[in-house]
Design a protein that fits this description.
By secondary structure, the protein is of the alpha/beta class. It has helices at residues 51-58, 83-86, 104-114, 119-132, 148-160, 178-195, 206-212, 230-235, 239-246; strands at 11-22, 25-36, 40-44, 66-71, 74-75, 89-92, 166-170, 198-202, 215-220, 223-228. The protein is 35% helix and 25% strand.
Length: 251
């Protein structure tokens, strides 16, 4: 069981006894984790520990070998019945994952069109979404014309366009300079404040985790070995946790 757990908030995501292997490689071996409604939870861990794999399980891209994932009490079944659950999620992928052949306008419009929104509504909404991420007047620009930090802002605007209840962030500060990383921290907190989303961030960036997380959970050897507030994680005496947090030695 985790070293720390203390919250009275309702559970938005509940992961129960999750097991997953790829051939001989064991990724999860009885992982338990809850994400509370409205919180910002950071999942930390070394590269290859399964952080991004966990996100893919949450949105039904990967199917567990055993165990369950529930969203608002409804189990993900990895079939067509999951559509209503998956609609609750927005995802900011590690590289932004913008469509190279589409300009900014069409990238953000993509999920809106799939939802059947009219072009009039889309034309009204896109400037509002860009304003939320601190961008204006770049609708005609192509992804190749944008810096990595700006691409991630556009990708965040696209994710929020779906009005998700839950935002998943996969290493949001990777490839972004420290100044723009700070801007992303503020944007993630702003999205929670404005859109009331529950946020799950997988990251190796401890500055990000300590700055904006309500709780931090560490994934190691297939399970969550510790979870708690940023202060609790800083004070945790577990050697594996301290090595990772301090960056003084490899875990």
């Amino acid at each position: 069981m985790p070293l720390y757990y203390n919250s009275t908030m309702g559970e938005k995501i509940t992961i129960i006894n999750l097991h997953k292997s790829f051939g001989q490689q064991v990724v999860f071996s009885g992982l338990h984790l809850s994400v509370h409604e409205g919180e910002i939870l950071c999942i930390i861990g070394k590269s290859g520990s399964g952080k991004s794999v966990l996100l893919k399980h949450c949105i039904g891209i990967l199917k567990p070998d055993s165990g369950s994932i529930l969203v608002d009490g409804q189990k993900i079944s990895n079939d067509d019945s999951d559509a209503s659950i998956i609609k609750k999620f927005g995802v900011l992928f590690q590289g932004g994952a913008l469509f190279d052949s589409m300009n900014v306008y069409d990238n953000i419009a993509f999920p809106l069109r799939r939802q059947g929104a009219s072009e009039e509504i889309i034309a009204q909404k896109i400037p509002e979404l860009l304003a939320h991420v601190g961008l204006k007047g770049i609708e005609a620009r192509m992804p190749s014309e944008l810096s990595g930090g700006i691409q991630k802002r556009v990708a965040l605007a696209r994710a929020i366009a779906k009005n998700p209840e839950i935002m998943l962030y996969d290493e949001p500060t990777t490839g972004v300079d420290p100044i723009n990383s700070g801007s992303l921290y503020r944007l993630i907190a702003y999205m929670r404040k404005i859109f009331h989303v529950t946020s799950v961030i997988v990251t190796h960036d401890m500055r990000l985790a300590f700055t904006i997380a309500d709780r931090i959970a560490m994934l190691h050897d297939g399970t969550i070995i510790v979870e708690g507030t940023p202060q609790q994680i800083k004070e945790c005496q577990d050697a594996v946790v301290q090595q990772f947090v301090s960056g003084k030695a490899k875990v």
